[in-house]
Amino acid sequence: MVINLALRFILEICALVSLGYWGFHLDMGYIFKILIGISSPLLMAIIWGTFVSPKAPIPVRGIKRVLLEIIIFGFATLALCSAGHPFLAMFFAVLVVFNMLFLRIWEQ
Predict the structure, then answer these.
(1) Directed axis angle between helix 2-24 and helix 30-47, to 10°?
(2) What is the pLDDT of residue 82?
(3) To the nearest 10°, the Cα dihedral for 31, 37, 41, 44?
(4) Cβ neighbours of residue 96 under 8 Å, at least 6 residues apart?
């Protein structure tokens, strides 16, 4: 069970990295790459910390939390795919689904 929580943390970090990677690899000017490469993971971290994290100041529960997690991890998956890594995106999505499933089963 501890392994699943550790996997969750790693998936959260991977989501941040994938959004940053996507932003820095866009076909735009350097200014836009830097802006999007920094702001997209920062925005995800703010949303996650505000609504989803264990010590969130505005915690979201139930189906709203699940939907928010799906949206956040979905954007990270799409970012990986858009950056030219469809296999990695698929692998990431499968890990997220299994992790979310086991989090619910073990009530973590």
Answers:
(1) 150
(2) 96
(3) 60
(4) 11, 73, 77
pTM exceeding the 0.85 threshold for the entire prediction = yes
CA distance 92 to 82: 14
Q: Where are the alpha helices (DSSP H) in 48-85?
A: 62-82
Q: What is the CA radius of gyration of the chain?
A: 14
Mean pLDDT of 87-92: 98
Query: 1 or 102, which is more confident?
Result: 102
Q: Which residue has the tokens 């501890």?
A: 2
Tell me how far apart the alpha carbons of residues 68 and 52 are, in angstroms, rounded to a whole number.
8
State yes or no: pLDDT of 30 exceeds 80.
yes
Alpha carbon distance 100, 92 (integer Å): 12
